[in-house]
Amino acid sequence: MKLRHLAVSVLIGAVLLSGCGSKQTMAPVVSASPSSTAVHQESSGLVSSESAPSLTGTNSAEGSSSGSSAVLSRTASSVTYIPPVLKSVAESAEASPSFLDHAVFVGDSVTLKLKNYVLKKRKSDPGFFGTAAFLTAGSMGSGNALQPLGKDSIHPYYNGEKALLEDSAAKMGADKVYLMLGINDVAPYGVEGAAENLETLTKRFCDKIPGVKIYIQSATPMLADKQKKTLNNPNLERYNKLVSEICEKDGWYFLDVASGMRDDTGSLKRNYCSDPDDLGLHFTDAACDVWIHYILTHTGG
């Protein structure tokens, strides 16, 4: 008698989310320290190899295993990619760049690229992107941004001094804060821990700058052939889903920037990738143009 094994395919569905305010408070749950070696190997140098204690949620670089089968399923030509549907800020008429006056953009090396692009454009167009300012660091994530200041801590400098993000944003006179973090968090903290760390960090901004408008941007995708066991597009989509739900709960704006960066497989469009032979997740100038247009057409009214 012949037995046939039936393969079970798992569809990863993504749901909702949007919106600033501090409707609820949530104390961080302290858990064990992730393996710094595992973090370094998982992200191929994207994340700092410095060991940092997990502040909340799943704490292992192997903590999210569901992404592996999804990555494999997407490589099969018979599988049709279904993009996640998240509750995010609706599209509106394009705002003037002055909308971004007094805005501060917080992020890792992906946002650092945006900063460099904006500064380049301002050489010929001083009003480009309004007066928006940036707080970026190459290996920064929500997890290490929550760590105390120190010689080896990953915190951006402001006016020549290393400072906590919320303190720098307050000194910069921010009335809007745009955060894009997560790609350096999913491997060391897991999907859930990464999302919870971002919520904890964002509440620090709300506490430090009363009335500030919070815009949380989705983590953006990677090239298909650069995905890792834990740091991969399915897990980044799971992270974005959780973050969008947090935004809806806490009254923050959620911007699904990733939706404009994906190809028909859910991966970063190759012509938007500036490092296809390296990490496969940083942007070209063309991607920055798409990003800026998205920001100015999704202001939240």
Automatic annotation (TrEMBL):
InterPro entries: SGNH_hydro (IPR013830), SGNH_hydro_sf (IPR036514)
Biased composition (Polar residues): 40-55
Keyword annotations: Hydrolase, Signal
Keyword Oxidoreductase: no
Source superkingdom: Bacteria
Region (Disordered): 40-69
Residues of the SGNH hydrolase-type esterase domain: 168-286
PROSITE patterns tied to this protein: PROKAR_LIPOPROTEIN (PS51257)
Molecular function terms, GO-annotated: hydrolase activity
Composition bias, Low complexity: 56-69
Signal sequence extent: 1-27
Protein name: GDSL-like Lipase/Acylhydrolase family protein
